[in-house]
Amino acid sequence: MTGPDVARLDVTVDLASGVPPYEQVRTQVVAHVSAGHLRPGDRLPTIRALATELGIAPGTVARAYRELEEAGVVVGRRRAGTVVADGAVAADVLVRTAAREYVEAARAAGLDDEAALDVVRGELARTRED
After folding, report:
1. pTM for the complete prediction?
2. CATH topology for 21-86?
3. Domain limits of the chain?
4. Distance from C-alpha of 90 to C-alpha of 14, rounded to nearest angstrom
5. For 44-55, how does the pLDDT look when each residue is reduced to its tens digit (9 = 90+)?
6. Helix, strand, coil proportions of the chain in percent (round to 5)?
7. Which residues pair with 74 in a beta bridge?
8. Checking phi first, is residue 123 left (phi over 0); if not, alpha (psi -120 to 50) or beta?
9. Per-residue confidence band for 24, with pLDDT thresholds at 50, 70 and 90
């Protein structure tokens, strides 16, 4: 999906996958940022344009963009559209993604915040000793 000033965004969605479409879009955008294919300031396709290209509902793309914005990967600017955030450096994006996935796994396992943090503290201590 490209336009006059829209970054090339090679994203696909597998509707038969067990992974929700918004999550597929989100992780692929993160991967493009991590790989350096998308750089700070690059403009993403509009929600409507990407939804049309992928054959999914605009609300699905909107959710992916919203989660990307919450993670600091992109910034929504009214007139400029959605752009890759200045602070979206590859390592930072990967760590935020891993943290998000860890929190989801910890919650699914029934851990409260303090127990989840204890696991992280334990791993940090273990890796300092290695």
Report:
1. 0.69
2. Arc Repressor Mutant, subunit A (1.10.10)
3. 21-86, 89-127
4. 25
5. 999 999 999 999
6. 55, 10, 40
7. 84
8. alpha
9. very high
